[in-house]
Amino acid sequence: MDNIGYYPGCSLLGTAKEYEQSIRHVFSKLGINLIEVDDWSCCGATSAHATNHLLSVALPMRNIILAKKQGLKSLFIPCAACYNRFVVARYEIENRPELRKKIEDVLEEKIETDIEILNMIEMFQRIDRELFLSKRQRDLKGLKVAAYYGCLLVRPNGVTGFDDPEMPSAMEDVVRLTGAETVDWNFKVECCGASHSITNMTVVTTLSKRIIDDAVENGAEAIIVACPMCHSNLDMRQRNIAKMDSQHKSIPIFYLSELVGFSMGIDKEDLGLSLHFIDTESVLARFSTAIVAKE
Amino acid sequence: MMRIGVFVCHCGENIGKTVDCPKIAKEAVKLPNVVYSIDYKYMCSDPGQNMIKQAILEHKLNAVVVASCSPHMHEKTFRKACAAAGLNPYMCEIANIREHCSWVHDNVEEATKKALDLIRMTVERVKFNYPLSEIRVPVTRRALVIGGGIAGIQATLDIAGAGFKVILVEKEPSIGGHMSQLSETFPTLDCSQCILTPRMVEVYQHPNVKLYTYSEVENVEGFIGNFKVTIRKKARSIKESLCTGCGLCVQKCPIKKAPSEFDEGLANRPAIYVPFPQAVPNIPVIDRTVCTYFKTGKCQLCKKVCGRDAIDYDQKDELVTEDVGAIIVATGYKLYKIDKKARDSLVKGYGEYGYGKYKDVIDGLQFERLASASGPTSGEILRPSDKKQPKKVVFIQCVGSRDPSKGFEYCSKICCMYTAKHAMLYKHKVHDGEAYVFYMDIRAGGKGYEEFVRRAIEEDRVKYIRGRVSRIYEKRGKYIVKGEDTLSGVPVEIEADMVVLATAIVAQPEAPKLAQTLGIPYDKYGFYAEVHPKLRPVESSSGGIFLAGACQSPKDIPESVAMASAAASKALVLFGNEMLEREPIVAKVNENTCVGCFYCKKVCAYNAIELKEIRDKKGNLVKVIASVNTGLCQGCGTCNATCPSKSIELIGFNDEQIYYQIKAL
Amino acid sequence: MSDSKFEPKIMAFVCNWCTYTGADLAGTSRMKYQSNVRMIRVPCTGRIDPMFIIKAFESGADGVLVSGCHPGDCHYTAGNFHARRRWILFRQLLKFVGIDDDRVFFSWVSASEGKKWVDVINEITDTVRTKGPFVNYQNLNKEFTLNG
User: Which site among A2, A65, A146, A214 is 20 to 30 Å from B493 CA-CA?
Assistant: First the structure.
């Protein structure tokens, strides 16, 4: 069994509980042992990076030091905001010796950055295709979804180095393994208004509406995400969108791990699908019975 | 036995004020091998030079040291004076006691001491000088021009007009290059083909021009004045001497749907085709990749209809060699195709613009073909997808240019102007249409250029928006162009009917390969490098190879033409003499000690090191050693310092000369 | 000779096209610098053999300067790059041959940098003056001469 470090971050214990649940179930089924970082703390994504630069680098570094002490070689960070903070902080430490010294003074620890940091999609990319397919119990053929990356996974591209910042395609490759179809659409990396989620809801509803509308227009029945911020904005705010536009057609928003989990036949409750604001049954019902028995 | 004379110049007060010249003249004569020494007020004056000449004769001097100003000032003067007295000019050396001594120091005692040191060092050095003579190389007075675009045409006509033979090689079936594809040209809006076609015909008819179309330079050997060039004449499948250009074969060819290169894929052509009606030469070529006969062995319709029996399916590539003395490289540019992100490409690409995915998102050259009276729409601006007239067109500048994060760092230079021209042409043809231009800056430096752009904005009401475009996507038959207006700080969305991208000018993909064949340097983008960006802009660092047009960097037509004429005049300077003379400061191999490790070859920037076989009397190979091609060697001496067995010397700056100079410190 | 009166000998190996011309410019501009330097002109820094530097110390130099065109400006395209590579290696060997590596200096001085040449020479002269004479080789020379 593979051991991989795991940093859940705060969202996965709160608004994105279903993300955490689905991840745990999916990876245990895939034979990967997620080892949570002991005594992990905030990554600084919420406000540190906007208010205190030193803190915004020191916080991820503290967690990296803890992970290294635990002997972890890779660190899986499912929340895109946390992932972004970690890779940005690592980049800064590796490229600014004076900052490294400062942070080492603050943390009173020596920093070593040789740890692999993986986002949700990269985790699935590590899985052997055959293994993945062997665990699949439902073929989601006929389900049309739009893969939505948001901003934090692919930007700044020089730092994350993950996929193409304007035309990414890695998530689609994973989605297709479930049998679902991915639609060609235009808003894969457009802003959902994440940071205004609470402070300026009009911005969020306007931006989220555009994303959902384009997905629907291009034939998507659901949107797949790998970020708690994307999920909460797109899922939670559809009620407000409906208030704004009576014609609005609601569509469910799935975490990538939920979709994969569903295709692996994991129980819907275990995946936390009932925790969504937008009903998920509308698109999943037709596959619910189709579990392929495997020995 | 060395008999050295030392001549100390006062340079009026310039040296004399801080250096005690009479004293050092007296001291110098005490140096070993110095048999004569004198000081004089102005050594470079006629009486001064006569003193040197007389002393050489009277005292039988076989080496001379002049302590005076910098060798960059008067080395030539004094060497000439020596030569006039029968002494080999390379037996004269300068000790720089003005720029490096009297002018930079105040203390007379210190300056005098230093001046004497410098003289002593130079005396030690000159002991190891030996007579040298200028290297003379014969010059083949014929030129090769590679590339038959406007730059190549201009260079060809200039050289041919001066009375020398020119060989023009063009890889396409016709000369004319990109300029023949253009509709109108900025800033005068005169028709491109109207001004170009006569020049193409002139090339074809000129008695001094030998034209190879559908041909490529395969190999180049030799050096300045003496190149041997191998040219590959690709098989046209037509006997050129028999073809009259009647065009019957083209009409009858059953294949009609091959995308036309000349029309940038906006129209089709047959398998046997002439790229465009004004093509020079007006001889068709068979595209063997689409021709039915070459694919299935059947058809031969063109052969049947040809009254002259000019079709030759069995024609093979032919290799011809030509001797030339100068080469002008004018291979031009390509437009950066943003749809394909090539492997190993320097740039990340602009997939989000939908080029290649949406038919109505086109590039600048495609728009030229749409606007051209000879183009697929006869000059009407129509969308490629549905042939409808677009009412709203967005032009985007700097697609790939000036973009270090996703594209190329450099400015493609001509896009500001041609975009203004495109928008203007569009407005002239579609009166109720709207034209938008997204730009970063408007760079309109050039005669009449700024006025031209102003005209587009003010008279033709083209709407300029300063900002970048983030994405283009299709929505119900329209193209949504999402961008930013940075002047008012708001996001902009335009529902366009057609989008024209001013994609970056890039070097020809085969440019590095040709550069390696020619032995000329190129930059990381594949543009050829000039020797000096300001003072020698049309010369490559390889002697006798000159650059013209956009193969060196993005250029517009007037600049390409000017550069081509400059390159032609450089070639003509070379042809001005039958023999080429140059300083003998070149490397020389000691054949006895060279072991043939070829480290010298690795460090030589000029490909001047060649392999030489040493054989015994019976013809058995003894060893392979290095040999210097004095035509190519520029005399930097890097090989001399690199050679582990000290078997290669830089004449004029050899180890002994320098070591003895050091020892005299 | 007391230390306060010590005047160092500096040998400079310079390329013909950039630094030599830059030093000419310092002259034509009548800038002043200390007179301790003796220059040897070579076509290109690529011509400079590391042995030149050792020989210079052997011949009584207290400090050695190598100066050429700025990277990318070489008259011969790439000579100064070869020179630079050579020095990177040579520097590590200096200690081995008994030369303090802070007696060997490298600089890029272009044909337009007369002022820079003046600054470089003054700085080097001052540095070497504080370091004192380079006696390692001179003593060796003496020994060899005494022993015949």
Answer: A146
